[in-house]
Amino acid sequence: MNQQSTMATLANRIYWLMLFAYPAPFRREFGPHMAQVFRDDMRGTLHESGPLGLLGLWLITFFDLLKTAFAEHIWEIFHMPVEKLTRWSGLAAALGAPLLYMTFASDFFWKTYWSLGLPDGDMVHPILAGFGLLLMGIGLYGLYRLLPRTLASKIGLAVALIGVAIGIMGMILWNQMNTQTFVLASFVLPTLGLAIMGLVAFRDRSLGRLSFIPLLISASFVVMLITAENSVDNQITRILLILSYLGWIFLGAAMVLNHSSEEPSEPGLFA
Questions:
Q1: Which of the chain's ends, N or C, has fewer CB atoms near its CB within 10 Å?
Q2: Whole-angstrom distance, CA of residue 35 vs CA of residue 14
Q3: What residue segments make up the domains of the chain, in order of their start?
């Protein structure tokens, strides 16, 4: 009996540690109740089936925890308060698009990546590009939050996010089918959406003195498409790429500096 009591105490402590896999708000609200339910199940299992039964309970509990903790983290992301999302959107804009561009057009990026001994494989490129697209989408949404709620800004956001979604789908389907159209859409549609929102930002000076930056990024991308001619090795294209990188970084900085704290709060992105 003493051995079973020791096992129960140890199992309870381990379970409390496992609860840290959940988001903090969820853990604070439901953690004590979940721990109590686990203790009751554990006592009943030990009494009826002994240590072997406890092992089965642990396996069930572990896999259930992984599943529900993952679901709660996804829920938290998509129900994140808008203020918290937009707080990081400037940084997302400054990092996301440059990362996406570099994975497709920068030999220096890949040489640096390999020299650091980072993981390699067929899916490294689409994973990095997909992560860049996700960050870029957050950045574009943050830009929209700084604009007047006009029809043009809404259309611009919709076009941009459709492109991001198509691009992420292309990264998921990488090596399973011809994703060239998906990849092209992931560049062209967000740029078009950025240009539309950029016109609104420029007209209303939504980003202060840097309100021209979205249009500059869009224009540099269009010129780059015209001059690239199926290659990113020419000097003009390299210069335009660097200009785009810097443009997104300045855009992110402008978004951080101009984020309005007076906007009414909203419960979440999709709430």
A1: N
A2: 10
A3: 2-75, 81-258
